[in-house]
Design brief:
about 100 residues; mainly alpha; 2 helices
């Protein structure tokens, strides 16, 4: 049994030495703690974490809580003001046609 373990350890060390000598560096992992308690094995983004553990977040129109501002207090007052101006100008035009 000990002999098998020694062979496995030798294989792992040999593989590690090959990785160190190769031109390809070891690929980084996210490393965040998973529910199982181990590190996350996904590939990280520029910030060092994967998509699930702090990667890209939605912003602007793509965000679920995006508000366009069409129904703010100021926008509704502007719509009412515009509607009153339109009514006033049509009333003035009708008066000019009568006179």
């Amino acid at each position: 049994m000990a002999n098998r373990t020694a062979v496995k350890v030798a294989r792992v060390l040999n593989g590690w030495q090959k990785l160190q000598k190769s031109n390809y560096p070891m690929q980084a992992i996210c490393g965040a703690k998973t529910r199982a308690g181990g590190p996350c094995q996904k590939h990280p983004m520029a910030n060092g974490r994967c998509m699930l553990h702090g990667g890209k977040s939605l912003s602007g129109i793509n965000h679920g809580r995006y508000v366009s501002g069409d129904f703010t207090r100021e926008a509704l007052q502007a719509k009412k003001r515009d509607a009153l101006l339109i009514l006033a100008t049509t009333a003035l035009l009708e008066l000019e046609e009568i006179l």
